[in-house]
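ARCHIVE CARD
Drawer: 12
Card no.: 0347
Subject: one protein chain, sequence and derived structure
Cross-reference: see card 0346
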Amino acid sequence: MSRRDATAGCGPHRRTRLTQLAADNAICGSTAYRYLHEGIDALAERRPSPHGALLAAKAAGYSHVNLDGTLIETDRVATPGPTPGVDLWWSGKHHHHGGNVQVVSAPDGWPLWTSQVRHGREHDTACVRHHEVLPMLALAASDLPTLADLGY
């Protein structure tokens, strides 16, 4: 697998390098990276809290919410773990380097809340505990049940 500058589009065959986007828009590569990170920062500032996302789901009248984790692949991080030869960002389950992100979504799959990234070797349950999402989901359970896979 080759190294990628950034991903845009859908799927591994529709990836666009940021340097190509910069060239297409007549800006330098460093400016393209700055714009990328400014955009990510702006989106992160508007990210709701788990509690806010659950309140919005109740207000929208959803019958339930979904909880699931996903591994976002990367080839740009590596950190030695506590076990010699084991990388913190390596997911043995997926056989990739990546970050574990937890998602609370509406019944149709639209994301309502996403966690900050955790090491790829962490299991979904460890990530949810770290983000303290389970107590909020338990409090909301009487009005808003949560569906999750058996990994939780």
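Annotation on reverse: The chain has two domains: 12-44, 49-148. Confidence is low (pLDDT under 50) at residues 1-14.
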